[in-house]
């Protein structure tokens, strides 16, 4: 591996068992994924819902144990020798009950080391338009998301994994954040992998774009829905979405709801 390589993934295949399922019900989320990313790169990870973007970021963050393949960040196995200065920011944080309590933002940031990164923290407070007197339980989801970003970015991270965390931000705040991230990659050689569905203002942001489809990278991407529909027509996969032929159990349920339908 080159010392300039930030991320290296080789032959990664990953399956998971749905809630309440059995081992035989496992679903393949990633299929033989292989790629390298250089330090200082800014990669957009794009693709439809269920394409495997979040799963890939979870694995890179060391949050999932892989069954097949190899995942290294700065030459270290993310499971056996977790690399320092890796930051993962996902959507679930803002929904956590622990960060919806009556905590003043200034106290919260200091409790996670804000006093050690005062210069960077203060710059992010300005970029993200955060009021230190906010109470976490009394602010909006978008404002809480800004606090999360400040918390995650105020230290000098080397690899940043973003999973749809800018969806709640207004246009000006998001623009300021993207400029900050671009500066970090240019001036410090930090690396960003950013999964998003929102492409406004991203024209000059990425150095790499990776399109995921059905757990794999697509070199000549076809829109996920169009590809799935074509594969259903060709008999390559069962049709599971949209209307379906009613089975006896479905008919029984429909009869029940008709009997107790009070919407008229």
Automatic annotation (TrEMBL):
Record flagged with keyword DNA damage: no
SUPFAM superfamilies for the chain: P-loop containing nucleoside triphosphate hydrolases (SSF52540)
Origin superkingdom: Eukaryota
Keywords: ATP-binding, Hydrolase, Nucleotide-binding
Domain ABC transporter residues, every copy: 7-239
Residue span of region Disordered: 231-250
InterPro entries for the chain: AAA+_ATPase (IPR003593), ABC_transporter-like_ATP-bd (IPR003439), P-loop_NTPase (IPR027417)
Record PANTHER family: SKFA PEPTIDE EXPORT ATP-BINDING PROTEIN SKFE
Protein name: P-loop containing nucleoside triphosphate hydrolase protein
Taxonomic lineage: Eukaryota, Fungi, Dikarya, Basidiomycota, Agaricomycotina
């Amino acid at each position: 591996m080159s010392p300039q390589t930030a991320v290296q993934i080789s032959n990664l295949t990953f399956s998971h068992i749905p809630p309440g399922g059995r081992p035989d019900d496992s679903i393949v989320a990633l299929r033989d994924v292989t790629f390298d990313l250089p330090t200082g790169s800014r990669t957009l990870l794009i693709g439809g819902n269920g394409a495997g973007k979040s799963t890939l970021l979870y694995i890179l963050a060391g949050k999932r144990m892989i069954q097949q393949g190899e995942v290294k960040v700065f030459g270290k196995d993310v499971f056996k020798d977790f690399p320092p200065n890796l930051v993962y920011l996902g959507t679930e944080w803002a929904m956590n009950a622990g960060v919806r309590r009556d905590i003043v933002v200034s106290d919260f940031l200091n409790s996670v080391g804000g006093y050690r990164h005062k210069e960077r923290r203060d710059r992010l407070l300005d970029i993200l338009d955060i009021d230190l007197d906010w109470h976490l339980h009394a602010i909006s989801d978008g404002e809480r998301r800004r606090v999360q970003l400040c918390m995650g970015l105020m230290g000098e991270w080397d690899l940043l994994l973003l999973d749809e965390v800018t969806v709640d931000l207004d246009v000006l705040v998001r623009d300021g954040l993207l400029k900050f991230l671009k500066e970090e990659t240019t001036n410090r050689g930090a690396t960003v992998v950013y999964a998003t569905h929102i492409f406004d203002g991203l024209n000059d942001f990425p150095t790499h774009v990776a399109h995921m489809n059905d757990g794999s990278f697509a070199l000549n991407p076809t829109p996920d829905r169009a590809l799935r529909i074509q594969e259903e027509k060709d008999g390559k996969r069962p049709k599971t979405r949209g209307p379906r032929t009613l089975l006896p159990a479905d008919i029984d349920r429909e009869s029940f709801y008709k009997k107790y339908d009070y919407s008229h």
